[in-house]
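Practice problem: predict the structure.
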Amino acid sequence: MTTYVALLRGINVGGAKKVPMARLRTLIEELGHTGVRTYVQSGNAVFDSTLADPEAVRRGLEEAIEAEFGFAVPCLVLDGARLRAVADACPFPAAELEGRQLHATLLSGDPDPARFADIDAGALLPEEYALGDRVIYLHTPDGLGRSKLAETVLRPSRLKGLDVTTRNWNTVLKLLEMVDG
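Answer:
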């Protein structure tokens, strides 16, 4: 059995792409996964599966969501060990920061460092970012909402060809707790 974390992108925002969490849990169970639990309405699910391929799990989930709700929802699916590795590799002092000040932008592949070469990191201080293994860490002391760093770093042209979704550190920690629980 593998414990997976599914991160749905762009649902339940401003009344668009409504995906009720109760129905999402049932849908994931109907795909044969077990122990399904969700966290908040933004599309975070943790579940166990006999499937060993996270890409197969992702494809099945995306197809089921589109068939059920009539719209496509990009999903990232990672196993619990990968989420733990993301947390462990954080280059910022996560324990000293508020959860809203630190974010993990999870990616379907590695970001191309060349796409970030033109960023003047000094001009964006005190905000900072770091590229990791299929993740971009964002330290935004005043939150993500009005962050110039996030606007610059997460520009679609920099992330072209990748599926991307961002979670604040509180959510990352809660999902890890669910994986470990």
